Amino acid sequence: MILVTGGAGYIGSHCVRELKERGIDVVVYDNLTTGHIESVPEGVPFVKGDIFDVELLCETFAKYGVDSVIHFAAYSLVGESMVNPAKYYHNNVAGTLALLDAMIAEKVGYLVFSSSAATYGDCGSGLITEDSPQNPTSVYGQTKLMMEQFMQDYDKAYGLKYVALRYFNAAGAHVSGEIGEAHNPESHLIPIILQVANGTRGHIGIYGEDYPTPDGTCVRDYIHITDLADAHIRALDYLKSGGKSTYYNLGNGNGFSVKEVIDMTEKVTGLPIKREVEARRAGDPPTLVASSEKIRRELGWVPKYDSLESIISSAWKWHSTHPRGYSK
Ligand code: UDP
Fold first, then answer.
1. Residue 3 contacts residue 29 (beta carbons within 8 Å)
2. Which residues, listed in sequence order, are joined to residue 170 by a DSSP beta bridge?
3. Average pLDDT over residues 248-268
């Protein structure tokens, strides 16, 4: 049995859906601060709980016979982390320590951890490999790097086996259009642009056009949420078949600027997207593009949604039918 923390959140809910579709047993653990109960599939056990609640975690591990954890529960906004670092260090760092305490107490030995491209910081314009230096430019990135470091030490001391997946920009929605991205307030690029398209927002603000990139706007590597989910399942299979603890980048290897994403959304939706240039957002590196060769080579992972157009189309299926997200 796999316990998914943050399993009612955006990435977690897509991973849970993928696990369920493959007939793998899963229990969702989420405090619903940012997650949505509506995204938990029927028949999947749900425990409302906090990652700080070691007692409840231990009880849940024992009750469901949990042998592995996929850990998504975290705050994940670069901008917010710069103005409220306490929230990020407390929840992401101290919360993960509590989860690890519970795992060690109950001998739950496998962990797939959602790390981030934000652990690299500004690496210039080339492809980022797992060996690129990790110098986060944001508090959010710093929290994810700290968690990677804990896990390394916990492996050495307690034998915890983990895979850290450093995602680039998770995007898109489940092929059914039944679940998708729904943050409140929304702060991510693609859902904001699609809110302009579905009429719930007036314009998209472009955070800076004076970056050292071809069109002056930030370049990111967008990866489909179902491809991410598949990577988590592969990582867990790898650990359970005796694999050593390790880490992988997850991206498509293609960078798109903010302006290119807006232009592609106009093409996909057939609607004009009003845009305005605004100030830079603190903590944003100019370019983050992944080399995912390592996970392709070692785990045979291949993204199915490898074009920006297919990623935005899947997100549009959700946003055009759920203009208010999960709210009625
Ligand atoms: N961005 C933007 N306007 C917005 C939201 C995001 O220009 O309203 C930019 C942001 O500065 C970054 C890129 O879009 O360069 C992707 O941001 P997002 O928050 O989606 O993901 P992040 O890169 O922070 O993980």
1. yes
2. 223
3. 97
Catalytic residue among 29, 120, 140, 305: 140
Which residue, 57, 58, 8, is CA-closest to 32? 8
Q: What is the pLDDT of residues 198-215, one digit of tens each?
A: 999 999 999 999 999 999
**Which amino acid is present at 249?**
N
Question: Closest ligand 1 atom to the C-alpha of 76?
Answer: 25
State the Cα–Cα distance between residues 143 and 113, nearest whole angstrom: 13
* CA of 141 relative to ligand 1 center, distance in Å: 14
Query: Could you identify the residue written with the tokens 């409302």?
Result: 48
64 part of the active site: no
Tens of pLDDT, residue by residue over 11-38, are 999 999 999 999 999 999 999 999 999 9
| Torsion-angle region of 32 (φ positive above 0: left; ψ -120 to 50: alpha; else: beta) | left
The sign of the dihedral angle between the CA atoms of 210, 213, 215, 220 is negative
Spatial distance between the Cα atoms of 92 and 90, rounded to a whole number of angstroms: 6
Predicted model pTM = 0.95
Straight-line distance from the first to the last Cα atom of the chain, in angstroms, rounded to the nearest whole number = 33
Mutation to probe ligand 1, out of 220, 225, 289 (largest number of atoms < 8 A from CB): 220
- Largest Cα span, the chain: 56
| Kind of pairing between the strands at 287-288 and 219-220 | parallel
Query: Mapping DSSP to helix (H, G, I), strand (E, B) and coil, where does residue 176 land?
Result: coil
**What confidence tens digit (pLDDT) does each residue in 91-145 have?**
999 999 999 999 999 999 999 999 999 999 878 878 999 999 999 999 999 999 9
DSSP-derived 3-state class of residue 243: coil
Tally of CB atoms within 10 A around 97:
16
Mutate to test the pocket of ligand 1, among 183, 189, 228, 311 (most ligand atoms within 8 A of CB): 189
Residue 161 phi, psi (nearest 5): -100, 125
Q: Where does 135-244 have alpha helices with state H?
A: 139-158, 189-197, 225-240
